Amino acid sequence: MHRNGWFIASVAAIIVSGGCSAPGGAKHDPASAAPQAPSDKLYEGRYLSTSEVRAKHEWEAERSIHFSKLVRGNPKTKRIALTFDDGPHPDYTPQLLDELKAAKVRATFFVIGKMVDAHPELAAREAAEGHEVANHTYNHRRLPTLTDAGIEQELTLGADAIRRAIGAPTKLYRPPGGEYDDDVINVTRRLGDCMVLWTDDPADYANPGPNVIVERTMRAVSNGGILLLHDGAKESLGILPELLAGLKARGFTFVTCSEMARERGIITTGGPDTWKAAAAPGAKR
Ligand SMILES: [Zn+2]
């Protein structure tokens, strides 16, 4: 596999045997789980830290475990992707969209299917204003706790909700909490999806204080960064104009995750439904 020093095989579609983690605990189908209302409970549970995301990626690369995954963009260009998870949220997403429009910045929204079904007009507005609407599963359950069938159901139901709301498909998804295991990888391959993680997490969901979010972001952000933010984080809303101005002042421009993925070697032929990962050794990564 091609290796270019900074980063190993950010995207590839070579299917290999073996996995990336030990067998997990008991799995269950989502149908048997108690309904979970969209709420602050979304933020319960552990999220992988940025360093864990990176370490896991390197661990997989060392073992030649490849699947379609975007963990950062091109480190040589000052392009970054803003991502907002867990919406659309009726109390926050409209203001968020107003702020992005005022700043002329496009972002990627990783939306939860049942939130989309509850507020399809907000997902439609996101798409109409030039943002990317991507999949964050239907119920926001932690995928490694589910059976293969449950994982597939969460991803396909989430994608279906997006298609209903905006009239276009997506093959990009982000696993809740960044958590995935061998089964999630295998389902990702089978569906032809691309998993998107992140490089920067200022932990806005914990509302650490507006200045802290700005400071954490500005300190850590780098070329090709993927920033993890949340629709429902009140403090992110308050500081978004300042954050965007600060990032622009540093020379960063903004791309969607699809644009970033394409640049990293995930290519499309004929539209979003035909996403394919570039598998050719030596492909620019
Ligand atoms: Zn989430």
Structure overview:
The longest helix is centred in the middle third of the chain and has 19 residues. With 285 residues, this protein is an alpha/beta fold. The protein has one domain: TIM Barrel. It has nine helices and ten strands. The protein starts with 49 loop residues before the first helix and ends in an 8-residue tail after the last strand. The strands form three sheets. Strands 2, 3, 4, 7 and 8 form a five-stranded parallel beta sheet that branches. Strands 1-6-5 form a three-stranded parallel beta sheet, with helices on one face. A two-stranded antiparallel sheet has the order 9-10. The structure holds zinc ion. The site of zinc ion has 6 residues, from loops.
Summarize, please.
The protein is an alpha/beta fold. It has one domain: TIM Barrel.
CATH class label:
Alpha Beta
Q: At the third CATH level, what is the topology name? A: TIM Barrel
How many β-strands, per DSSP?
10
Span between termini: 11 Å
| Major sheet summary line | 5 strands, parallel
Number of helical segments with 4 or more residues: 9
Number of domains: 1
Q: Judging from the principal axes of the Cα atoms, what is the shape?
A: globular
The residue ranges in which pLDDT falls below 50 over 5 or more consecutive positions are: 1-24, 32-40, 268-285
